Description:
By secondary structure, the chain is α/β, with parallel strands linked by helices.
Amino acid sequence: MRCSIALLALVFCAFVVPPANAARILGFFPSPSRSHLLIHCAVADTLARAGHNVTVIATKPNMYPKAPYNYIQLDTPLLPDTFMNVLVNDPPPFYKRYPMLLSEVTKMNNRTLSHPDLQEFLRNHGEDAFDLLLLGYFGNEFHLGLGAHFKCPVVISFMMQPFFVINELIGNPSEHAYVPTLFSGLKQPMDFWARLQNYLTTLFEYYYMSPMLERAEQKYYSYNFPTSSGYPSLEEARHNVALIFANHWFTQGPVRPNVPNLIEIGGIQIKQHPDPLPADIAELLDGSPEGVIYFSLGSNIQGKHLQADKARIMYSVVSKLPYKVLWQWGDSGYPGNSSNIVYKNWLPQSDVLAHPNVKLFITHGGKGSVVESQYHGVPMVGIPLFGDQPVNVLDVQQLGMGVYVSYADLTEERLRQAVEEVLHNPKYTETVRNFSKLYRDRPMTAHQTVVWWVDYVLRHKGAFHMQSPAVYMKRWQLMSLDVLGFLLTIIITVISLALASVYWLAKRCRGGMKGKTNIKNGVTKAKKVK
Length: 530
Ligand SMILES: *[C@@H]1O[C@H](CO)[C@@H](O)[C@H](O)[C@H]1NC(C)=O
Ligand SMILES: *[C@@H]1O[C@H](CO)[C@@H](O)[C@H](O)[C@H]1NC(C)=O
Ligand SMILES: *[C@@H]1O[C@H](CO)[C@@H](O)[C@H](O)[C@H]1NC(C)=O
Ligand SMILES: *[C@@H]1O[C@H](CO)[C@@H](O)[C@H](O)[C@H]1NC(C)=O
């Protein structure tokens, strides 16, 4: 009896008393994208629930109001609407798009850092305020200066499989012979032409995009964290990255090697236990056993960002379907008032997709959306708009979990065919449900993984023993150019010496022979004269 009371008390204490090793963690998530924030905040939420004292600073409203962290929203101008419109409806050619995006994003990140509230926060929180910085990555490497400000190790949260910048930060191999880069749109296994394309894309990333980004990051870093004020260089700040969480799991492909401090936490944003849906949505879903179609082009794109004729096509197709359609459209300018469509400004996507009556997801193919759909086993029709979305949707189509529909060439005919194909052919649902089983089968859940690794980094003061030596090497050293140069020098020296000695020997011999011949000739001549 006494024993069980003691046990009860122990169990009670375990829930009430925060762990003795509770750390102060600052999550800094300046990305303007709600889908990015959804992932970073899920990491922060997980850590706060594990008992850490977590403060989050971001530029969008808190998406997890129940999360036990302190949330500070900076009211800073993000990417301009005009920019989003251009990106979706009139995208410039590839070689212009990247510099444009990079310039806008880094400029925005500088504005965020200069925000008076953030500057005030930094003045009030000195070097001992935090034990760990959790940085959401989005073209903001110069924000690593915050780790230098708080003199604490940095953990980075990244929304996708590692790509070139993330790889370079921790010396993760690119292995371009068999790992398709994020933006190539290629799949494993790659044939010769795919490998050629991947090789060229990798060169483009590492030798064009990376240096361009590097220049911008360096400019903003020097401005915000000048070495004259005692800050380390950007290079040194980079060495302070303890670990990177990538929102990827290998069953999604590609299969690739990672360094020990690249930890995959694919699906961290997916709730393990769905929250109850808002009453009206629950009623709609529960009351439609024949199935409901969920339509959302993502959290960044509102209906008003779409071209009017494209919006009309989408409306025309879904308004004629014999199913209810739950459309996350935005706050105004609905394209029509069909009785089977319910427009919402915002929907709890993961909870909606978890409902067994959702039959189809019409999506823009953002990584977060695709993964949620895969997790819950819902087939897709993808209408990608920009960024990594076309690649994600192509992936979905190749895996047999849905159908790709081009936004640029959108017609009623094409969209209707795609929707009907996925609704009527059971193979899409079966494939995505099979995938769902494989995706969930892991040694630890994404949430357990986050908690374990952050505790590990805290226990070992940054755990820099995990760092790959590649982090401290120059690119030419990583390519072994110095070693090859050295070997080549030796080989050339040896060959030159060999050639020189052969030449020298030959010359000496020839010299001897010549002497003899001359004598002979002399003799012959002498004979002739005679
Ligand atoms: C959590 O950390 C913040 C920042 O260091 C600090 O101001 C606050 O007092 C801490 N809260 C608790 C409950 O320890
Ligand atoms: C960063 O932003 C601040 C404030 O907007 C601005 O004064 C500064 O010039 C910017 N830095 C650079 C390098 O552009
Ligand atoms: C939909 O209905 C609202 C009011 O009920 C109306 O203002 C709007 O013009 C209608 N839209 C269309 C496209 O018919
Ligand atoms: C799904 O998995 C089952 C059982 O492993 C298998 O029989 C079936 O062929 C799979 N379906 C598809 C479409 O891959």
